[in-house]
Write a structure and sequence with these properties.
Aminopeptidase; binds coenzyme A; 299 residues; alpha+beta; 13-stranded mixed sheet; 2 domains
Length: 299
Amino acid sequence: MPLVVRPANADELVRAEELVTRSINDLTVRHGFGPIATSRSPDFQAFCLRDDPRGVWLAEDDGEIAGFALSWVSDRLWFLAELFVAPGRQGQGVGNALLDRTMQHASQAGATEKCLITFAFNVVSQGLYVRHGLLPRVSILLCTAERESLVRHAQDPALRTTPIQNTAADFEMLRGLDFATLGVSREKHHRYLLANPMVEGIFFEDGGERVGYAYVAATGHIGPLAVMHAPAMPGAFRAALAMAIAKGAPQISVFVPGTSEALAIAASQGMRFTLPMVLMSWREFGDWTRYLPRNPGFM
Ligand SMILES: CC(C)(COP(=O)(O)OP(=O)(O)OC[C@H]1O[C@@H](n2cnc3c(N)ncnc32)[C@H](O)[C@@H]1OP(=O)(O)O)[C@@H](O)C(=O)NCCC(=O)NCCS
């Protein structure tokens, strides 16, 4: 039976994410990083599908999922959150066919910016994206540390934190910070994060002025984090680390762009670089000295 590329349904997301996990682990084991992915509930994928089904595609061969792609659009930004092909089906044009479909989503939605985050060691994905006009721009490193080792370096944070509330004023502030750092609004994504009881969203305050925001998960993961001005990044990053430590999870993790001062702080605190990623975009996009993405799918 020929390969069929078609829109995915909500009840197929669990199986699609199983394929994503298999594909990631096959890649990372081949490159010496070991199996890094575990199966998770496809909450963000389901949110994206409900929000805009034009970005969610499945490649199917004889009833088996051969590949899966998911893109979201926020404001004028198209972001490729996932593109994965089953290990035995790679190099046969499946990824290319899925990417074509998700890129149609960008033009249908009127997006003028295109961006994604992929594995820095995957020459195949980078080659495919370059052929579609997206170039590698910024290195992003997953930094991790045992909570106990970070406690030894912790300093009292200089910035105050206050919770993000579900008010028009707070959403206006988030919008201003996203425009300053990314040039686009991500209101629906803030609503998604703020609805998750396992994630805490806060503003950083300096002398009564709000200078940034961050989300810190109960799992010890930090991000996204954004600051209005680059000089606020060190203070904001230290305050986010202190919050993550206070959560008590055994491991702290955060994706840090190579252009951000936060990377030197992470290294000086003994955090290890555990996964090299790279941000690719159609043209220069975002100020990565002032923004730490949540992960390669959410950005
Ligand atoms: C990356 C991935 C999605 C691509 O899908 P695929 O079905 O294997 O890719 P395709 O066969 O459609 O196309 C691959 C293209 O990469 C290009 N490519 C392969 N190796 C390359 C290299 N070393 N340098 C430059 N380009 C390269 C090829 O030219 C090929 O295009 P062509 O056959 O038209 O010439 C798939 O390999 C995969 O799932 N990899 C593991 C997970 C992953 O990294 N996903 C991306 C996450 S963002």
